[in-house]
Amino acid sequence: MRAIRLRTNYLNNPVGIDIRRPAFSWNCMEGVTQSAYRIICTDFDGKTVWDSGKVSSSSMTHILYAGEKLKSRDRISWKVILWDENGNEGAPSEQAFFEMGLLEKEDWKAKWISGDYKVHKRNRYPADCFLKAFEIKDVSTVRKARAYMTACGVYEGTLNGHRICDFFLAPGITDYRKRIQYQTADIKELLQNGTNQLSFLLADGWYRGSVGSWAIKNFYGSQTKLYVQIEIDYEDGHRETILSDDSFMWHNETPIRFADNKDGEIYDARFNDKNPRLSPAKITECAVIPSASNNVSLIEKQHIINPKLIITPSGKKVLDFGQNIAGIIEFHIKDAREGEKLILRFGEKLDSEGEFTQHNIQCVRKDLVTPLQKVEYTCKAGANDYKTRFAIFGYQLVEVTGDLADSLGEYEGEGEDRTEGKVRTEGKDRTKGDGFRLHPSDFEAVAVSSDLEETIRFDSSNLLLNRFVENTLWSLRNNHADLPTDCPTRERHGWTGDAQLFCKTATMLTNYAPIAMKFLNDLRDWQKPDGRLPQIAPEGGTDFYMRPMNGSTGWADAGVIIPYTLWKQYGDFGILEEYYDMMQKYAHYMIGRAGHWAPMISEKAEIDKSLKKYLYNVGQHYGEWAEPKDVHAMVWKDFMTSNVETSTAYLSYVMSLMAEVTEEMLERRENPLFKANLSLFQEYRDGAKNAYQALVKTKGHTLDTNRQAKLVRPLYFKLLDEEATAYAKERLLKALDDYHWRVGTGFLSTPFILYVLEEIDLELAYRLLENEEKPGWLFMVKAGATSIWEDWDGPTCDNGKGGGIASLNHYSKGAMCEWLFQEMCGIHIEGENQFRIEPKPGGNFTFASTEYDSVYGTVSCGFRKLSDGQYEIEVSLPANTTAKLCLKGKEAEIIGAGKTMRVL
């Protein structure tokens, strides 16, 4: 038996973490059961700093380092030896490693620097460039070299012309007033004998640039600044440091004349920054000590797509990349005249007239249009190469205007032979006199997202559903630029409601824990003394009139639902330990609001006075949000009230999660706080449930409704008594009949509806799943979607009249996918090294399968319909795991590692 897929706190060989007691995990291959393990850790010089010895245990996840106290800069290599079920010792694993960053305040020696200019908040500025030269006599004597870098703004660093790290828009997004992430890079291989040239570009980013729907500027500060600390350790034991200070030279004569995350870049290639006017960098201050993100990087992904050319009815030229992405653009102009311009605008769709539009992604008022999503490029003479550096765009289409637009064309037939999203242009003779100097194949779209390891493979007999799952994965990628966002175009906010409802699906699609915990840190940074949690985190760009919505149920509840989901999916009790304080503070905040009434906000609720103590009827809440307009057309009043039905339901639900979490905490550690909390959370769980049962018997909140969400929510949360449950199920089926079996839920209840229908009758769940009419999941794909829509109407949604709900790249409705993986294909994590496999074939599906790289290894389950109407079930379990196999009509059985075949 051998250990594979070694991870340190979910990360693959991380450099620059600040977790004082890292946790080790691995998977097993070969053999059946791990009977013991041994972890051996060595330092940079090969000295053993921890040897666990042979530990009799089948555990292979979240095993804490217990060696010598870790210090700043320590690099620890580790390997694992396993023993199988027969006591046989296996071969050592391949070696993994982790490296500590700078752990102490005293480790930080450099100074913050900025450009030598006075900032006027109303002005926008070119990218800053900071330069520093240093000498190395003999690189062969260098033992180790590291760069520790961060910024208030976004930076890109190079050493001797090579990028120092692959993090795009470093250092990522946080509330810079409270926490600033830094990057650590191994630069040893970039060093050279003699003069070494450091160069850093610095742009506005989230810090000073446009954030939020209305492009608020200077939210976190108005002076961008850079911090660089380079440490070069030599074989003789001495250390040389290159520190940002006023010895760094500065200029802003870079070709990047303007850079904004949302609006784009203005790039003038005529600027020659090789001989700029230099002045010393200005020393400035920042009170925040940088900290490690302990997260994956935001990188340029390998999804590079060549476009086809569209000529619109008005004669405009538009590049269609065939996939809605979040990313950047790269192009090459072989022969340009000095001063020629190329203007690119990025968008998601053509309008009803066939013209390029940004209407669905923009907020517009008299003095502002945002986001611009535009690149303005001015050529130098000859060859020109461009790649966006300090912006991300959400787009499938690019409108091309400017002097060079007339020079853009394609060969006859070019763009028609499309394979896997790429245009084939092999064999085209570009020397022929076609009159074009610029071709579609000179442009490439580069997707940019956090480097999340993808962990799911899904396939079925329904091609539309397969594409929907693929679209969900695309929208996940497109909305994770160091933060789970609502869309990569207009707001780009870390909406808590979207994140919590999608979290379970995300944990199956990807190795999601690192970025989820980073987001939980963002929530914790925001949390108020009264325990309230936000609707958006970090809050940059949140409009002032939205502030009363902080604490909204279904949204702020992310502070409980996300860590709970991670704990269940990854079996990581450390997540509860890390975030329990935040979770329980928020639970007390909810309890503190229960039982109160506020004029104009509270809704009428004629229930027994004794139950009103548990009614959540104050504060402004979003409620269900974004139901189909013919089910419930939203108006502003919908989220100006307490939304007492939704709020009370979530009060009971959150309390149920907190009671379960607190019971787990008590099992691990005696604590009077846990005991008091458990009693209180159980009281409000049950009290809110009873208040809810009374509420839905009143006229204003009756279960006699065609709003599917009002029936799905209490059924999924199991809030109703037996009689009301039976009625709600019956009424839900009538609502679906009246709506012709189309999806009528909004944000909060869409992930739940198939579970609820399955409990009534599995075939009903399949009936709704397979609906191809609007509104429905499969309708999106039939309509040509390559990502998930925010609104069920998709491209036909009117941004001006639809409340701004018009993004075509918004993962929330993809949260349904968890049902496919868990219920349809039957993969459930039940505990440490344990699964429950319970596939539920149905509908018109002749086959379906899911393969999932879980924290315990790769598990798969699928079914195939046989000619006699029975189903062949195939299950594969990883080594060192077991599963309870549950098949309808058969007695449950325990199965072990390897392949299992059954007929159902």
Task: Tell me what you see in this structure.
There is one protein chain. The protein contains 15 helices and 46 strands. The protein is globular, with a radius of gyration of 28 Å. β19 and β20 form a beta hairpin. α3 packs parallel to α5. 21% of the residues lie in helices and 29% in strands. The longest helix is centred in the C-terminal third of the chain and has 25 residues, at 644-668.
Q: Describe the sheet with the most strands.
A: 10 strands, mixed
Please give the alpha-carbon distance between the first and last residues: 33 Å
- What average pLDDT do the residues reach? 95
Structural class: alpha+beta
**Shape summary:** globular
Contiguous low-pLDDT stretches (5 residues minimum) are 414-433, 799-803
Rg over alpha carbons: 28 Å
> Helix proportion of residues, in percent?
10-25%
**Total count of helical runs of at least 4 residues:** 15
Number of strands: 46
What fraction strand? 25-35%
